[in-house]
Every structure is written in structure tokens, then in C-alpha cells.
Fold:
Amino acid sequence: MSEAKKFMYINRHAPCGTVYGVEGLEVVLISAAFEQDICMAFIGDGVFQLKQNQDTADTGMKNFSPAYRALGDYEVNRLYVEHESLEERGLTEDDLMPLTWEDEDDDWAEKPSIYIVDRAQLSDLIEEQDIILNF
Structure:
């Protein structure tokens, strides 16, 4: 049996104004249901997708950010956020949703899903992937 392909979904767009964010998340959840090796990266305005307390009332778009909490249930527990993108937008790690997953190999301990990485680290992570999808 061949080794599973590594998928990275790169999120570059803000959660409102386009359908890229919500459609990207839907594709990740569908792919994860098929037990793929999945990670996500958030760069540029994509970092806003993970911002806490989103209010989309004035945009006419549904707030899909609560669905990110389901990622851990689908074993999508590597969400890489580019540090420089956060900084350029006046955000810190504290502005992001506290997303976690439960590690069954560690007595179901809750562990963070979000990893802050710099551009060089993210570049290395991208290089390790077999398939990259941009949203």
C-alpha cells in the first residue's frame, strides 16, 4: 500500500468579501473525511479567518468561523499561521481562536492546533507537501 499524500490548503483571503474562505474550509472537511494527511496554512489576509469574535452581520455573509472548531474531530490539527502576516495586520496569536484537538495517544489531552511560523519555516513546510491547494 502506498504512503498517503500530504495535502496543504493555503488560505490567502479574508473570511468576508469572497467565497474562498468558506469553500476552502468545506473542501478541507470533505477531504479529511477521507482520512487524508491534511494541514492548513494561513497567510496574508487569510489570517483573519482564524480571528476570534468575528462579526459578519454587516457583510451579508454567514459567519463560518465556528466550523473551524470541528477540524480537530477530523484530525486536521496542524494549522500554520504566518507570523509576518499577523504582524503586518496588527494581530497577535492572542487574537486567534483557541483551536485544539484531543490526542488519544496522550490520554485525550487537549493540544493546540495553531502553530505560528515565520515565512522561512512556512516555505519549508510547503516544500514537504505533495499537493498544495490555494484558497
User: Anything to note?
Assistant: The first helix runs from residue 20 to 33.
